[in-house]
Design goal:
The protein is α+β, with helices and mostly antiparallel strands. The protein has two domains: 33 residues, no CATH class; 47 residues, Dna Ligase, domain 1, CATH 3.30.1490.20. Helices cover 23% and strands 11% of the residues. Strands 1-2 form a two-stranded antiparallel sheet. The longest helix has 11 residues.
Length: 83
């Protein structure tokens, strides 16, 4: 668990939590998080999807990227390597 100094709640109210920070904040409260992997290549994404199991969701991730869906940075219901 993060220390109070690095907790998302100690940041200014103007700070938007990244997806990773949001999940780390919610986990201690028992919120279920779907299995996920962070990958850097299409080949690694296919390998991760094979490990997790299809269908999967693909998202661009980064600490400064908010509103991924609105920006077209999310792909849903991917069912195979050719998707």
């Amino acid at each position: 668990m993060s220390s109070p100094a690095s907790s998302p709640l100690t940041r200014p109210a103007t700070h938007t939590l990244s997806e990773a920070e949001s999940k780390a904040f919610l986990e201690p409260f028992g919120v279920s998080i779907a299995p996920e992997r962070v990958v850097a290549t299409a080949e690694a994404a296919v390998a991760a999807a094979e490990e997790i199991g299809w269908p999967v969701v693909a998202k661009l991730c980064g600490d400064t990227i908010a509103h991924k869906t609105e920006r077209g940075l999310v792909r849903l219901h991917l069912t195979g390597a050719d998707a």
